[in-house]
Design brief:
By secondary structure, the protein is of the alpha+beta class. The protein has 6 helices and 14 strands. The protein has 2 domains: 43-116, Beta Barrel (OB fold (Dihydrolipoamide Acetyltransferase, E2P)), CATH 2.40.50; 143-304, Glutaredoxin, CATH 3.40.30. The strands form 3 sheets. The protein has a 7-stranded mixed sheet, with helices on both faces. Strands 3-2-1-4-5 form a 5-stranded antiparallel sheet. The longest helix is centred in the first third of the chain and has 27 residues, at 2-28. The protein starts with a helix and ends with a helix. 26% of the residues are buried.
């Protein structure tokens, strides 16, 4: 009788284990939430409101928002937001400004979110970092040296729509510098074949490894991507500066990088790609590599209008 009871209990425990395992397997097999890509006919609307609740798991924020001009009346509704860093800083009552993206298929989400909130008891509001790239903030006239060994500064790009990104030539990661350089080289070729844009848009890749990425190294690196030994680097330039100056540039644009402790030839770094208008002001900051050349080009063209 005792043995029978033990066996029944063991069978019950196995049953519970199978249920638990199945639940965990189901959860683990759920597809990751993927950020959609704005299509060619996507509409963009400024949105302003107050946070009601945040769902980190579903990557959504419920906002009580004001009227969205030319789109919808004031109401309270959830919006997808695919930047977890931003979501984690939101709390109930936070005031937000954002850009509502609406694709032609009806898909929608928020981008370019700016958060502000009234202080709670015993809480102080940190001062705004005026040295950090902010939308509509003018970029300082940083000085660099390009792939031809010639000086170049940000003022040289005034009157053009400019996109910058950060790389280092020894980067082995296909989803980091290799991806950034492939996108910029592809876009450079596309722009060179556009009569309307070839003289209006410029691309700049900045290396944060000046010790290795000399002008000669950067030129060979760029040619390897362009696949044209006679490329004149008018549309796309690669440049760097002394380490202290690169740090200032990186800090302004929010790029983080450091030498890997276990391999001094490798940098651990974030990704930043920035669109700068012809007047020298920041208009868009892409964090990470989750953007396409079509998106980047649309942002650049917008600054020209």
């Amino acid at each position: 009788m005792v043995c029978e009871t033990i066996l029944k209990r063991r069978g019950y425990m196995r049953y519970l284990f199978l249920i638990l395992f199945s639940v965990l397997l189901f959860i683990g097999c759920q597809p990751a939430i993927k950020k959609p890509v704005a299509d060619a006919n996507a509409k963009r609307y400024p949105l302003k409101g107050k946070v009601v609740s945040v769902d980190l798991e579903k990557q959504k924020v419920t906002i009580q928002h004001e009227k969205v001009e030319n789109y919808m009346d004031a109401m309270t509704m959830p919006f997808p937001l695919y930047d977890k860093d931003i979501l984690q800083t939101m709390t109930k009552g936070s005031e937000v400004k954002a850009e509502l993206i609406v694709n032609s298929d009806g898909d929608y989400w928020l981008e370019n979110v700016v958060i502000s909130a009234a202080p709670t008891a015993n809480q102080t509001i940190p001062a705004i970092n005026d040295n950090f790239a902010q939308i509509d903030k003018e970029v300082p006239d940083f000085k660099l040296t390009n792939q031809d060994g010639k000086p170049v500064s940000f003022k040289d790009f005034r009157g053009k729509a400019l996109a910058i990104t950060f790389i280092y030539s020894r980067c082995p990661l296909p989803e980091y510098c290799i991806l950034m350089s492939r996108r910029f080289s592809d876009l450079a070729i596309q722009l060179n074949n556009s009569a309307d844009l070839k003289d209006k848009v410029r691309l700049l890749s900045i290396s944060f490894d000046p010790a290795t990425d000399t002008p000669e190294t950067l030129k060979k690196y760029g040619i390897a991507y362009i696949k044209n030994p006679n490329y004149d680097f008018t549309i796309w330039q690669l440049a760097t500066a002394p380490d202290a100056d690169v740090r200032k540039i990186a800090d302004f644009f929010g790029l983080r990088y450091e030498v890997d402790a276990s391999n001094k030839a490798i940098f651990n770094h974030s990704l930043r790609t920035v669109v700068i208008a012809p007047d020298g002001k920041v208009k868009k900051v892409f964090s990470g590599g989750d953007w396409t050349n079509d998106e980047l080009l649309r942002e650049l063209e917008t600054t020209l209008k």
